[in-house]
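hey can u check if this looks right to u? its 330 residues, i copy pasted from the old doc so theres a chance i mangled smth
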Amino acid sequence: MDIAYIPSPSTGVIHLGPIPLRGYAFCIIIGVFVAVWLGNKRWIARGGKPGTVADIAVWAVPFGLVGGRLYHVITDYQLYFGEGRNWVDAFKIWEGGLGIWGAIALGAVGAWIGCRLRGIPLPAWADALAPGIALAQACGRWGNWFNQELYGRATDLPWAVEISAGPNRDAGTYHPTFLYESLWCIGVAVLVIWADRRFKLGHGRAFALYVAAYCVGRGWIEYMRVDEAHHILGLRLNVWTSIVVFVLAVVYLVLSAKLRPGREEVVEPDRPADAKDADPKDAKAAKAAKADEPKDAEAGAAAAEPEEAPKADLSKAEPAGAEAPGAEKH
């Protein structure tokens, strides 16, 4: 008999009248807000403007959600297109199923579009977002707890998660891999923040460090899971993905440090459109001051010129050799 374990919610959705409030969706939304909040603080600290991170996130988040769902559906196609399955379920994102690899890959495409529109470098924006993305994953993993999914092997450890009987699952206590990954992601965020402050990472290296560190944790956590997955040479597909992505991230770190050392001095240049955001009163005052400049300049020039001595009236001057009145004649 287990005397200690983590209980699972009896349901992953609460109905507020006709509106369903799903725990999985809430975890994803909270994660997005955390990532944007922390990313904005880091972006401003790097010299960027407030609001830029959120503006680009408007592009990155939808692309990331689509990419995450596509990766999940493609790699677990048997869940939606196998015998007795309903392909419409592939669109039911609220029931769970987002692949981080697809989310990051397609999310980067959306971020690239947003960065191009704002005229800023994608690597600098990614560096600012890196620890926030890790924290977003830490929040999002709790959505698996609400859905009672993606747990590990059976265990009687005090922190085991209780899983109730349901479709494709047996009741029991299992390793809470969602919790392991959530804690690992928090550690990754702390590591990236520390390394960025210590080594002044730039040109995408903070993001590459996040990717490499996450892959290390995802590799061993994935190895513990017991849900259905494709295997290659005895290893789960996501383990191989972690290995490949880890190698690519490390290679980028090394090459980037050699080719582009240091950090970007300017991450967000001023734009002409920024002048529209100025206070109208300030703009009016500046315009009036500019209009007065010529007058002030003329007055200053006049004051600087020396006063000319009054000219004599030559028409009233006596001719040369003229005698003064009262002078005696000889």
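The CA atoms of residues 13 and 318 lie 116 Å apart.
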